[in-house]
Design brief:
The structure holds 2 protein chains of 2 kinds.
Chain A lengths: L1 H5 L2 H11 L2 H23 L33 H37 L1 H15 L3 H12 L3 H28 L2 H8 L4 H12 L1 H24 L11 H10 L6 H28 L5
Helix pairs in contact in A: 2-12, 3-4, 3-12, 4-5, 4-7, 4-9, 4-10, 4-11, 4-12, 6-7, 7-10, 8-9, 10-11, 10-12, 11-12
Chain B lengths: L1 H28 L13 H10 L6 H13 L14 H36 L4 H15 L2 H15 L12 H30 L2 H8 L4 H39 L4 H10 L3 H29 L6
Helix pairs in contact in B: 1-11, 4-5, 4-7, 4-9, 4-11, 5-7, 6-7, 6-9, 7-9, 8-9, 9-10, 9-11, 10-11
Classes of the chains: A mainly alpha, B mainly alpha.
Membrane topology (chain B): Multi-pass membrane protein
Subcellular location (chain B): Cell membrane
Main location (chain B): membrane
């Protein structure tokens, strides 16, 4: 609604507000650093994430022999493993969010645009799915069908689209009343192209906020599964799996717990701050 | 209001039925069965076992039998814990989980609401930024990270608190903190947002204009309205506690429902897993209903 009235200036306003939000800016910086480190970091170390070295087990963080963050009970280098785990955690975060984004936006925009009985039925289905304790289904899926990374993407994405669908539907209902949509309809544009060309682009602001808040949820969820021993399978790893290993050995080698915990918490912290900053920037009534 | 409550309860039945069906289908579609031991059972023993638990019947018959039993609040015998019914296990585990969950929720509300209101009343001042940074940290540190870190600090390095088990109140300190901190942080953020909004509303301005003390305006006039979003957050919060308790109970070795669920899933204890899932489903439905009724009581503009 406001988007349409203010036209382009809303985004420049939002950008200005975001720039003055130091917490959000710092978060973008830290997050960028973590992402770059996860991508290129493993190449900087002479070690890899799966080779076991029984001559170098339980080494505390040291500069010697390039075990910068120490090694685990199998002599695997923690620096590389933490970044490798970061690759997996971040990838799951992005891909599963993308899955939920596609389903949620398509579903919500269709329900909101169709309105009436179609909308009623579609949202009733969402309500029913909402009441399901999905986490338990995901746990069952993992236990019964094996720890498959593809399955994790699909399962997490399939759960997370519900919120997205609700938010998008609400926005679409409001957008639908706008004159430019009516004009498109009058000129004979089919519903599909109205949704794709006129509704969805106008949802981008809300969706952007929501994406930054969904990614940390997904990462958290994957870590939770990995912590229960149901996530990615050895020797591949993720932050949740590393935290689990670290928690098992924390008396002897606390760095195995602390390093992945700091990575995970810092990433979630940054995403949450960026999401908050974006929301405040696009809808500044509370600040 | 009574008819509203009844309608809601009836409306929950199809939801629970779908839940039950999904759980049933998944359990049966999964490879492996409850009697797959390391050592292969003699065929006769296996057949007898399967006959005893009706696993030899056609699937639709098993399904019908199960629905019928559940409708009579009989969740069947556990496969793993021989001679124990799922009802017994739930009756055994639920009080433990309930105590933990209720304590965590109380912790979240008792600390979260004042923290959020304090931040709102000092909006954009250091106290506000401090409180909100603490809240953001609370949200960003997952309970399964917080719990081992606390054990490391309070049980391994310093011998202040027991690392697991149940006995005295000290056993509850770390699990409650681990389970309640994230929720406390959410509550604080919600309380801040709603208090800021309420303090700008006309009726609060009126209350101030007629000369009431600041304390009276905040506690008597603003508080009930500021609480409404927190009340509606209690539904998701309860679900979050249930989920969180799965991992917290595993970490601290607390014999509650969450641990039964994980063990049941790993051991393919069909009836136990389905019983726990269904029990959680019923719990969430009832809790959401209670929240909605409470909401109507707090906000007179809501009608059923």
């Amino acid at each position: 609604m406001e988007q349409a009235a203010h036209g382009r200036s809303l985004f420049s306003d939002a950008l200005r507000r975001l720039r003055s939000n130091k917490a959000a800016l710092a978060s973008i910086g830290v997050l960028g650093f973590i992402v770059v480190a996860a991508v290129v970091g493993p190449w900087l170390s002479p070690h890899n994430y799966f080779t076991q070295d029984y001559g170098a087990i339980w080494i505390a963080p040291t500069l010697a022999d390039a075990h910068w963050l120490g090694t685990d009970g199998l002599g695997r280098d923690l620096f590389v493993r933490a970044l490798e785990g970061g690759r997996i955690s971040l990838m799951i975060g992005f891909v599963a969010t993308l899955v939920s984004l596609i389903i949620g936006v398509a579903y919500g925009a269709t329900a909101g645009y169709a309105g009436g009985r179609v909308d009623g039925v579609m949202m009733r289905i969402v309500d029913i799915l909402y009441a399901m304790p999905f986490l338990f289904f995901v746990i069952l899926l993992m236990v019964f069908f094996g720890r498959n990374i593809l399955l994790i993407f699909v399962a997490i994405g399939a759960i997370n689209w519900l919120d997205m669908a609700r938010i998008v539907r609400g926005q679409t209902l409001a957008l639908k009343q706008q004159p430019f949509i009516e004009a498109a309809r009058m000129s004979g544009a089919p519903a599909v192209s109205i949704i794709a060309r006129h509704i969805v682009p106008n949802l981008l602001g809300v969706v952007a906020v929501y994406i930054t808040l969904t990614i940390p949820q997904v990462i958290l969820f994957e870590s939770f599964l990995s912590f229960l021993g149901l996530g990615v399978a050895e020797p591949a790893t993720s932050w949740g799996a590393l935290i689990k290993d670290g928690a098992d050995e924390m008396g002897r080698a606390p760095w195995l717990l602390i390093v992945p915990a700091v990575f995970l918490a810092a990433t979630l912290f940054c995403f949450n701050f960026i999401g908050d900053g974006l929301r405040d920037a696009l809808d500044p009534k509370d600040r | 209001m009574l008819s509203y409550a009844l309608r809601r309860l009836l409306g929950a039945i199809p939801t629970l039925l779908i839940l039950l069906t999904l759980a049933f289908v998944m359990m049966r579609a999964a490879p492996g069965g409850p009697f797959d031991a390391d050592r292969e059972l003699p065929p006769q023993v296996r057949a007898n076992l399967e006959a005893k638990y009706h696993l030899d019947e056609p699937l639709y018959q098993q399904y019908g039998r199960y629905i019928w039993d559940v409708a009579h609040f009989d969740f069947g015998p556990s496969f793993q814990y021989r001679d124990t019914s799922v009802n017994d296990l739930i009756a055994q585990g639920f009080p433990v989980s309930l105590k933990l969950g209720a304590a965590s929720l109380a912790f979240a509300l008792i600390f979260g609401i004042p923290l959020g209101m304090l931040a709102a009343l000092r909006q954009n001042k250091p106290a506000d930024y401090g409180a909100m940074t603490v809240a953001m940290l609370g949200i960003s540190i997952p309970n399964f990270v917080l719990a081992p870190l606390m054990i490391l600090l309070f049980a391994v390095y310093n011998d202040w608190l027991p690392a697991g088990g149940l006995g005295s109140w000290q056993n509850y300190v770390m699990p409650v903190l681990a389970l309640g901190t994230a929720m406390m942080a959410y509550v604080a953020r919600l309380a801040r947002g709603s208090t800021i909004e309420v303090m700008r509303s006309n009726y609060v301005r009126t209350a101030r204009a007629k000369g009431l003390s600041a304390a009276r305006v905040v506690w008597v006039h603003a508080l009930p309205a500021a609480l409404t979003p927190i009340v509606s957050f209690l539904g998701p919060a309860a679900a979050g506690i249930i989920t969180g308790s799965v991992v917290i109970e595993t970490i601290f070795g607390i014999p509650g429902l969450g641990q039964f669920f994980v063990q049941g899933a790993l051991n393919r204890d069909y009836t136990l897993v389905m019983g726990v899932v269904l029990f959680y489903g019923i719990l969430i439905v009832l809790f959401n209903l209670a929240v909605d009724l409470l909401y109507g009581w707090l906000d007179p503009r809501v009608s059923y």
